[in-house]
Design brief:
2 copies of one chain form a homodimer.
Chain A: H1 7-15, E1 21-23, E2 26-32, H2 36-53, E3 58-62, E4 65-70, H3 80-90
Antiparallel strand pairs in A: 1-2, 2-4, 3-4
Helix pairs in contact in A: 2-3
């Protein structure tokens, strides 16, 4: 769960996630909503998933836009934990 | 409410706010909490104040740290609206 993924593994996993992209050793996606109220609803859903998984993305809120950035800091890069959380987020 | 403040006005208002600093034409502060749960409690309080005021800070969440950045984009800089919201946030 917490060992670093290889470049090939990351590529395959990214391929299965819509619009997530790799930036340095993190994966990121910006979600756009109707307004701030809807953006905050999303942020709170993320917060619950993150707390349950004990794995917390960086969350940047810009009115109706929410940018999530995932990385396993303790491992120094991307692990299975990041992609499991991204997959759960995509199901929201 | 929405006219740009002068440099002198900004200086006085910043002086009355604890640990907010000006960066370019925005004011910003990072709040540190015990953990993510407490940080999210704060974020949701901010969200309610922001929505009521129809004035929304940029909100960056990094586990237990929340950075708020205020500016009146429609005015191209800092106005009374920014400092009114900052004052409300300080009362939380």
């Amino acid at each position: 769960m917490t060992s670093l993924l290889t470049e090939k593994q990351i590529k395959t996993k990214l391929h299965n996630l819509k619009n997530w992209k790799m930036v340095e050793n993190e994966v990121t996606k910006t979600f756009v909503f109707e307004d701030f109220v809807h953006a905050m609803g999303f942020v709170n859903s993320i917060a619950l998933l993150a707390e349950r998984a004990n794995h917390h993305p960086d969350i940047d809120i810009r009115w109706n836009k929410v940018t999530l950035t995932l990385s396993t800091h303790s491992a120094g890069g991307l692990t299975e934990k990041d992609f499991m959380l991204a997959k759960e987020i995509e199901k929201l």
